[in-house]
Design brief:
It is a single chain. With 262 residues, the chain is α+β, with helices and mostly antiparallel strands. Helix content is 21%, strand content 31%. α1 crosses α4 and α2 crosses α3. The longest helix has 24 residues.
Length: 262
């Protein structure tokens, strides 16, 4: 198993290479290229959204059971039981302590805790979702909640979450169709390493996050206006084959879910 220090070093090496590639991309821009970039960024700026993006940390003995985490342990009411359907327990996939978020979508501001549970299948020693049952549990007050005993052996690798603020997420295909003029889109994407310039200006996360814009999907998500949570394949949890899941909360406070995979 790769240690946390080794993983951090790997990320630093990747970040260093990316920074060098970005510097080279900017240095190679002509005056006309700069005009194209500035015009493109100006068009996209009004579509920016904020998001609270998850950074996974190894769980600590001292960490609170009320904290945000991927995988258990979760909290619930003293009289409550771990969710199950037809005699099968659901996996505790994500617990979000809303009070920890640097930015909260308006639809989630009524809650202090949001939990997502889902049916899972043992697939090569991974907890994998395959169109099974799912459940969202929400709490408006943490004061009466207690640590719940998980009554089964989970395949997930629980990790605590720290949240970072993303202030300039922009839509990707197909949600960005029609925003930029076709000629400007063509000119921008003709630039060398245009994607590095775009990611530097408008970093948009593909991992677990609250709010922002959903990860690019072939046909888009089914209800963009109600989208509130994105959950990636992480911590030994998979949406089919390394896919991504989405949660939606509509104007009637009704939850729905959707997942897609690569």
């Amino acid at each position: 198993m790769v240690s946390e220090a080794e993983e951090q070093r790997r990320k630093e090496l990747i970040a260093g290479k990316s920074a060098l590639d970005l510097a080279n991309a900017k240095a190679s821009l002509s005056a006309e290229d700069c005009r194209i970039v500035e015009a493109y960024f100006t068009v996209m700026q009004p579509y920016c959204r904020k998001a609270s993006v998850a950074e996974y940390k190894r769980p600590c003995v001292e960490s609170s059971p009320f904290s945000s985490q991927m995988g258990g342990p979760f909290v619930g009411t003293a009289a409550g039981a771990w969710p199950e359907v037809n005699g099968e327990y659901l996996e505790g996939v994500l617990q979000v302590n809303v009070l920890e978020l640097p930015w909260v979508p308006e639809r989630l501001q009524q809650f202090e805790l949001v939990q997502f549970f889902a049916a899972w299948k043992d697939w090569h020693q991974k907890a994998t979702y395959e169109d099974g049952t799912w459940l969202v549990k929400t709490y408006q007050d943490l004061s009466n909640l207690v640590l719940m005993e998980k009554p089964f052996q989970s395949l997930m690798e629980p990790k605590s979450i720290q949240w970072k603020l993303a202030e300039h997420e922009i839509p990707s295909y197909p949600d960005n169709i029609g925003i930029v003029d076709e000629d400007l889109e063509r000119d921008f994407q003709a630039l060398d390493d245009w994607w590095l310039l775009l990611e530097d200006k408008f970093p948009t996360s593909n991992q677990t996050k609250i709010g922002g814009w959903p990860k690019s999907q072939q046909n888009g998500v089914p209800d963009l206006d109600a989208y509130v949570v994105q959950i990636d394949s992480a911590c030994n949890w998979q949406w089919f084959s390394a896919g991504v899941g989405f949660l939606f909360l509509d104007d009637n406070d009704t939850w729905s879910s959707f997942c897609d995979f690569d």
